[in-house]
Amino acid sequence: MPDILVHAVSVSIPVVWSAETRLHDPRHEVWVGVATPATEISSRVDAILEALTSRRTVPAEPHDDQVLHEVHRPDFVAHLASVHRDWLAGPYADLVGQGHVVPYFFPTPALTQGMSPSPATAVHARAGAYCYDTMTLVGPGTWEAARAAVDCAQTAADLVLAGEPTAYALCRPPGHHAPRSGYGGSCYLNNAAVAAVALRAGGHERVGVIDIDAHHGNGTQAIFWDRADVCYGSVHVDPGAGWFPHVFGYADERGGADARGANLNLPLPEGTGDAEWLSALARLADWVREGGCSALVVSLGVDAGAEDPESPLLVTADGFEAAGGLLGGLGLPSVLVQEGGYHLPSLGGSVAAYLRGHEAG
Asked: Per the structure, how many domains does the chain have?
């Protein structure tokens, strides 16, 4: 175990949050060319807070960009911080009435064909160099909310490094679909990866990241693909059945050449309920234990819930509580990072159930 100073700790899991996480308002998503109502909305924060009113809340503390730049390329971070301002300075509001950054041009290998492209000059073209879908819009407050979510994750890691057994970061927008140099899947900056790197910097030699969101965290996998000091494991709906992120999340993805075996994906069929989901999660818990991890980050998406509109998994509140027991039972210092969960009536209850289970574990 790392030599970490232990302070007095609280009995229950503290909740780290920032009011700035409400500032991002995507209004809609563009899916298959159609504007559909956004599901990753600011009222998610309030639904969770209302279910956790009995818990101690801790305001997120501002952090510099040192850890963030270990997770994301500085040029990408600078782009995300400035692209909406640049968009507003362009003609888009007058031309098409669009005040949000929506990429339409993607310089993929299909275009570049091995050639070295020159940087795009138009803002609407530059956006596609960093964003990989049309669903993830950048508007007023997006950068502020995403950066505040990072501070939530890093503050939770600070608490754990100071002796809290577990801390929960109420991050919004979520982050596990954001790779090192881009964003997508309603995710902008990778909060779970920030927490893992902060725990590593604080003295933990090997950190486990377990992702229970209904969708595979392709961004987290990509960030740690070639690193053996952070193990990433995920249980999620099978992308082969047509689910996001479509091209990653398969069982044969085991890590890069220098980290073979440090990645474990357990895709599940549509309609999977508590028993099979918990069985897969138990396998991930054993994998983290056997891998010698001394700290844990949980990507706590609850969109695997049976009532959630964004996935076909059928996990109940009891299932989430049992999941908390499984991972809390590892006995590792843990940072819990909020990811998905979009059914507002059940969202807070599902998060509260997981936290109860983690404490009891």
From this structure: 1
